[in-house]
């Protein structure tokens, strides 16, 4: 099965990420989740082969990417960035990709972060993380946010958004 991204919007994306993961695992065909393990850097892992996940949250949004291969996903609300931040975050050859807008900064940042999540590698210093990443990737834009995925197969065309009511199912179904 190819990489899929599931998303939900509510009050607190951080609190929604685990229920979203449980629902996404069922929708993806994995059934109930086993106890998660964690890498040395804190990345959640599903025990066994061929089951990879990545979680992200920002503001009221939560995303969950599932795949048979390593995957990284990131979502960020578009915020005003400090003037010197692009020069700190982007290598000289990446600056032409930055058009000076907060949306452009956020899109490029989500690419960097999703690439680091793919390989479970540090994001610091951000200038050392390549954009565009040297792997299949895609960015998604919504009202006031950007998200990106990095994976080893074809990135999904879009995000499958679920309703908050759908998350209730994971608490009432064994």
UniProtKB/TrEMBL annotation:
<keyword id="KW-0808">Transferase</keyword>
<feature type="domain" description="4'-phosphopantetheinyl transferase">
    <location>
        <begin position="70"/>
        <end position="118"/>
    </location>
</feature>
<dbReference type="InterPro" id="IPR008278">
    <property type="entry name" value="4-PPantetheinyl_Trfase_dom"/>
</dbReference>
<dbReference type="GO" id="GO:0000287">
    <property type="term" value="F:magnesium ion binding"/>
</dbReference>
<protein>
    <submittedName>
        <fullName>4'-phosphopantetheinyl transferase superfamily protein</fullName>
    </submittedName>
</protein>
<dbReference type="InterPro" id="IPR037143">
    <property type="entry name" value="4-PPantetheinyl_Trfase_dom_sf"/>
</dbReference>
<dbReference type="Pfam" id="PF01648">
    <property type="entry name" value="ACPS"/>
</dbReference>
<dbReference type="GO" id="GO:0008897">
    <property type="term" value="F:holo-[acyl-carrier-protein] synthase activity"/>
</dbReference>
């Amino acid at each position: 099965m190819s990489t899929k991204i599931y998303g939900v919007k509510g009050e607190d994306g951080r609190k929604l990420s685990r229920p979203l993961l449980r629902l996404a695992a069922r929708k993806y065909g994995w059934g109930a989740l086993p106890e998660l393990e964690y890498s040395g850097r804190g990345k959640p892992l599903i025990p066994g082969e061929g089951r990879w996940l990545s979680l992200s949250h920002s503001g009221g949004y939560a995303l969950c990417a599932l795949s048979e291969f390593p995957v990284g996903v990131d979502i960020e609300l578009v915020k005003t960035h400090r003037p010197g931040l692009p020069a700190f975050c982007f290598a000289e050859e990446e600056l032409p990709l930055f058009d000076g807008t907060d949306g452009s900064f956020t899109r490029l940042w989500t690419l960097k972060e999703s690439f680091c999540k793919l390989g479970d590698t540090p994001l610091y210093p951000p200038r050392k993380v390549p954009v565009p990443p040297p792997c299949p990737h895609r960015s998604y834009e919504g009202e006031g946010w950007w998200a990106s995925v990095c994976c080893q197969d074809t990135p999904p065309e879009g995000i499958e958004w679920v309703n908050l009511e759908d998350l209730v199912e994971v608490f009432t179904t064994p």
